[in-house]
């Protein structure tokens, strides 16, 4: 049996640090900053983190879209949609 679907294999390939082939759950709220004011990929989890980025990438692939978005609640998603108009 071989599962070759976007849902299982899309959005993620391999964790750069650990080599894990499934998306790790990063529970960190803040990330290390080498220098104050320097540009870093991950700064604070409310602005983004590797786990959410992987989910959003998979959502975009599943929907054949250029971007996917994940929210912490349904109300946050609804408020964002209404703010677009």
UniProtKB/TrEMBL annotation:
Cofactor(s), by name: pyridoxal 5'-phosphate
Keywords for the protein's UniProt record, in alphabetical order: Lyase, Membrane, Pyridoxal phosphate, Transmembrane, Transmembrane helix
Tell me which EC number(s) this protein carries: 4.4.1.8
The transmembrane residues are 66-84
Q: Does the keyword Transmembrane apply?
A: yes
Give an example GO molecular function: cystathionine gamma-synthase activity
Q: Which GO terms describe its biological process?
A: cysteine biosynthetic process via cystathionine; transsulfuration
One GO cellular-component annotation of the UniProt record comes to: cytoplasm
> What's the family?
Belongs to the trans-sulfuration enzymes family.
Name of the protein in question: Cystathionine beta-lyase
Q: Provide the species name.
A: Lactobacillus acidophilus (strain ATCC 700396 / NCK56 / N2 / NCFM)
